[in-house]
Amino acid sequence: MTPNERAAQLEDRLIDFCVRILNLSEKLPNTYAGQHFCKQIVRSGSAPALLYGEARGAESNSDFRHKISVALKELRETHINLRIIKRKGFISGERLNSILDENNQLISIFVSIARTLDKKKRGTRI
User: Fold this and answer.
1) Which one of 39, 43, 106, 125 counts the least CB within 10 Å of its CB?
2) How far apart are CA 60 and CA 98, in angstroms?
3) Helix axes 61-88, 32-56, angle to 10 degrees
4) What is the per-residue pLDDT across 11-55, written as a single tens digit (0 to 9) for each?
């Protein structure tokens, strides 16, 4: 698989994750707290796909690294939001386990990308 194919595959995975977040958000209760976390998770859960799309068109390696870093922050925020939603019982834990797992996998991928970029910048072997 070429680097461009891997990038397209990751982008598709992030889009699928975003759609899952949007579907989840529609199941949150119409209470003040439920809507607060609905807005939070829509924002943080959709941002990684958008940021990665921007990163693929980055103007420099530094710009790419920055966008990857921001996407990683958003994935981590989404993970906390999902844990709060689960703990509060807005949605059953069983229904959230799969999306939490995907969130963790995406975090791992972005950590790996960031570390690889940092090693390349320092000129060390990967």
Assistant:
1) 125
2) 35
3) 160
4) 999 999 999 999 999 999 999 999 999 999 999 999 999 999 999
Exposed, middle or buried, 4 (CB in 10 Å: 0-12/13-18/19+)? Answer: exposed
pTM over 0.85? The answer is yes
Residue 64 burial (CB count, 10 A): 17
User: Could you tell me the CA-to-CA distances from 111 to 46, 56, 76, 124 in Å, in that order?
Assistant: 18, 17, 11, 17
User: Residue 16 is encoded by which pair of tokens?
Assistant: 């699928």
Q: Quick one: how far is CA 73 from the chain centroid? A: 8
pLDDT (tens digit, 9 = 90+) per residue, 80-108?
999 999 999 999 888 899 999 999 999 99
Q: Residue 57 CB: number of other CB atoms within 10 A? A: 9
User: Of 22, 27, 52, 53, which is closest to residue 114 (Cα–Cα)?
Assistant: 52
26 DSSP assignment: T
d(CA 75, CA 55): 15
Q: Write down the residue that tokens 């949150």 correspond to.
A: 28
